[in-house]
Every structure is written in structure tokens, then in C-alpha cells.
């Protein structure tokens, strides 16, 4: 029997990024006792890295903007595979969530007349991203943390204990969810510093663990993005959807090698930056897909006029959705028109005065100067695609964020559905707040509705402890693997075989390799003891990465079309029949099974927001029978 530290809460939130903190605030405001558990330091999450801004149709810079336009843009960006109810809630509620942040202490950049300023971003019809320079995520996390501190001060006044109702457990990794019958009963984990085990008993758990980028070699994501939440949900019996859709951001740094993949924010293009190949050609005009032809300028003069007169001109093609721009860059480099280091040029220096660049893009200026010795006010950057975001995630009920497992909720990047096959820039930060809040509400009302608290079996605790300790026992077996080597090979294989452009044969090869990685991960051995042992941490994370990578590869093999963040070289077109199907992943044995799930038909008042001419690009004729004709 394993003796361990125990804590009991009403709601346990796993993850302290934007989604987790907003969920925790809501649950606490609903009167629940809440634990926030995060594997990194408190305040260090992907949310803090967000640069460009948060999308919300406030109409401050262009009064034509409203939630319906935002909804339309989001559905178009996701190529109509989005869960339309989530896209609707998101577009309707995002402005309130942004304003609410200012009541928590955030201060966004302002327009001349004092309103929250909004900037252009790819795929958004109007300037829509509220921002704080290019450090928006920092302000978001700072103000959510400030709100938590303020709630703790209220609790101190009421109870004499700051942590009476909300407590943060930082540098603590959850390795397993525990259940009582079908329902969630808590989570098991370890303190990263001491290696000691810890148990959280709770009738409701909110997953807010972010994404999976560390399964790929070139990524903008940091060490925490090992798909833990996705894997925890799967092993607890929940399902994942849309896992074939991975967003490769078009602009990551390509040089020097030590920083390859680090993000170059889309704001550079939103604020006027243009993409050129090694021949100096502004190549994006060659890559405007049919579905977007009426919305994007087909010549430089019109594209440039758009920055000062957006109402009478079409947008520059550099601001197409990310999947389109990433594929275009990939094609230019493959065609031999890349930069010396295998990217393309992104130039803002000839488009804005140096002072303006330093004011609008301070982090980018600093990042390139420090890491690549490039002054972006005087020369072009070299950029290329980098694995950035996973559209797929835990299948949730849109209004409550509850998964298919009672008591298990998910919000933020770990949840699936909202972004369909491709996310628009800025729509993640707003997603975190809208669905973080809803998850906190959903978890609280779930707890209120329970007749009795679930209980955890000691045998389940013992087996979670055995599972976590297994990498120490592997050292005693025959064949021994180094977890770092297996991780590096997994990343290379996912990049090469299930990356930005995919082929059936290559995905099959990836699946064979994943079977080998599974065996090798079981033999991944660590030495020493549990006190801060990064090799052990990686050996545990590796099993999650392999499970989640299998979801990506299996779903990618089944979807025989190209859409958003899933491009099949052998099936280059978008197929309207595939729009009607989602792919759902569940655990089967030590692997994953993928089945088809029909897409829910969009509510007719929402469908009516689109012209028939546009819908015809995505829907079959019989589906559109009865939809209104063009006026
Ligand atoms: P995160 O903020 O990543 O938080 C995840 C949390 O889960 C962390 O606290 C982590 O420690 C914890 N965790 C993970 N696993 C475990 C575990 N096993 N046990 C305990 N804790 C765990 N989006 C926009 O909308 N606008 C932008 O301008 C923008 N810029 C970006 C720039 C960069 C460089 C990057 C990488 C992303 C950017 N994004 C942007 C995307 C956006 O930042 C992320 O999608 C979003 O922040 C994810 O938030 P989250 O709350 O879901 O997860």
C-alpha cells in the first residue's frame, strides 16, 4: 500500500494557463473549494507566451464588426468543421470576457478616443484583436492571477486563511485520473522537486493542460506541451475529436538552429509585414485558394491600399488563414525559392518607420536582435512553418464543457471542436476565457447535483503509483532505452511523416514506428531516485506523447481529403462528404481506435448568416436545398 499526501477539494483544475485560471475563478465564485495544479511554475504557461492578441468582436476600430461576423470568420477559418454551437458561444461571449479582464486589472492598448484598440489578424474580416503590444498573454495571465489573489484576500478576511477556498499546487504533475465507477473521483500525481506522490480527491476535474506540440521536432511550444491532458482524458475513458488537425504556424524562426521554431507573431503581417521569396517576389498572390478569391486582393496595389482603406479594398493575401500561408511557404521552399536557411523573407522594415516597429512589436524586435542578431527595423526576417497548436482535443458538451465522462471537464487548447480544422489567430485566448468560465460553471453545477461524493479505491492509487514508478523498474529489465533518444526520434518521425504535408504511405510508416516507440518507451529506463529527476519526468510524459501521436496518425490516415490543418498530398481536395464527419479517438488495449462521428447540422438561423454561394464551396447541393438564394 502506498502512503501518500492527500487533499480533498470540490473542483480540481489541472493547468494554470488562461483556461485553468478562468475556470478556477468561476468555480470559486460559485462557492466551491478549488485546487489549481500545474506542472510548471505558477504563471509559466503557454498563455503567457501569447503575443498578438485576443479576438473579440467589440467593433472599436470598425463598427461593422459584431458577433455574427466573428462567428462567420471562425467557421470559414475552420472550413466548417467547427462545432458551431461552440463557435457561436465564443463569438457572442468573447467581448464580455475581454471587458471583464479589465475589471480584473488588465489594461489593453487604446485607440485615440480611449477605447480598447484592436488589430488585424489573418482570417478576421475586421480589426478584432485586443492587445497589449505583442505581450498580450502576459497581461492576461497577470490579471487572472491578480483576481485569484484578490479572491484569496477575501477568503482571508472571511476565514483567516488565504488558501481556504482556492490553493495553487505548482510544479506538481498529474499522471492519472481516478474514478469511482464511471465518474471522476480525483487525480494522482507527483511533486516535481521531491518526486513524492500526491492525491487529489474531487468529484469534478477540469482539464486545462494545453496542447501537444512537443511530439513534433520544430515547434513554437515549450516543454510542458506533452499532451498530458489529452492522454489523461483518453485513459479515463473520454474521447478526443479532430486529432488529425494540427496547426503549423507559417512564421517560426528558422535560424539559428538553437531557436528554430520559436514563434514570429502574426501581428508582423497584421501590421503590414510582407512575405517574399529569394527572388524578391511577393508570392502569396499566387496562393489564394478558390474559396477565398472574393475576399483577398489579387495585386499589390489593392493589398497595400487596404491598410488605409479597408472598406473599399480586399485584404492582402499575407493575411489568409494560417494553414494557407504555411502551405504556400512550404511550396516556395520546396521549389528552391527559399532563403539561405530554408525559410522565406518576412519584411516589416520597408513597411513601417523603425520607431513604429519598436513600439508595436517590441518583443519581436528584442527576440530577433538577441537570438539571431537581426534588426527587424532595418532588415527582413527569415521564417518558416512551425508546429503551433492542436485543433483536436477532448470531446465536450459545448455549453458546460463536460466530456463524455461524468465529472470530467475540459477547456482551452486541450478541448476539441471549437476551431474545426483550423484555428484563427487570436481565437485561442478568447476561447480560454469563454470556455474556461463555462467549465468552472459546469463543474460547479455538476458538484451541486451530486447526492454523494465519489470515493477512491486504494488499489487504484497503488496502480497509479506503480505506473508512475515503472521507468525505475525498466532499468532492471533486459533491453534498456534512453527516454531522450526515444523522444528525439518520435519528434523527427512525427515531423517527417505526419507533418505539414501528409501521404498515406508515410502515415502508415509513422504508425509502424509508433508501435516500436511504444515498446521502447516501456523500456525507457531512468536511474537514481525520484528527487528532481528530469529523465523520469520525460519517461512519464513520453507515454502520453506516444498515445496522443497515435491519435493524430490514425485519424490523419483515415481522413482522405485535405482541409485546414490536415493536408494529404494524395487527396489534395476538400470533400463535402468529409465535412459531415468527425473522427473520434478512444483508447483500445494499449493503443487507440478511431471511429466516425456525424457532424451535427448547423442551426438554421446560423446557417442563414452565410450566402448560398459561399456554402456551396463546402456543402453538397442536397444539404442546401431550401437554403435562401442570393438576394
Ligand atoms: P496553457 O496556457 O499552456 O496552460 C497549460 C497548463 O497546464 C500549464 O500550467 C501547465 O503547467 C499545465 N499542465 C500541463 N500538463 C500538466 C499535468 N500533467 N499536470 C499538471 N499540470 C499540467 N493564441 C492567441 O489567441 N493569440 C495569440 O497571440 C497567441 N500567441 C501565441 C504565441 C505563442 C508563442 C504560443 C506558443 C501560442 C500562442 N497562442 C496564441 C496560443 C495560445 O497561447 C494557447 O493556445 C493558449 O495559451 C493555451 O492556453 P491553455 O490555458 O489551454 O494552456
Automatic annotation (TrEMBL):
Domain FAD-dependent oxidoreductase 2 FAD-binding: start-end pairs? 10-429
Kindly indicate where the leader peptide sits in this chain: none
The record's Gene3D superfamilies line, in alphabetical order, gives: FAD/NAD(P)-binding domain (3.50.50.60), Fumarate reductase/succinate dehydrogenase flavoprotein-like, C-terminal domain (1.20.58.100), Succinate dehydrogenase/fumarate reductase flavoprotein, catalytic domain (3.90.700.10)
What keywords appear on the UniProt entry?
A: Flavoprotein, Oxidoreductase
Instruction: Please name the Pfam families in this protein's record.
Output: FAD_binding_2, Succ_DH_flav_C
Q: Tell me which residues make up the Fumarate reductase/succinate dehydrogenase flavoprotein-like C-terminal domain.
A: 487-583
Q: What is this protein called?
A: Fumarate reductase/succinate dehydrogenase flavoprotein subunit
Q: Which organism is it from?
A: Allokutzneria multivorans
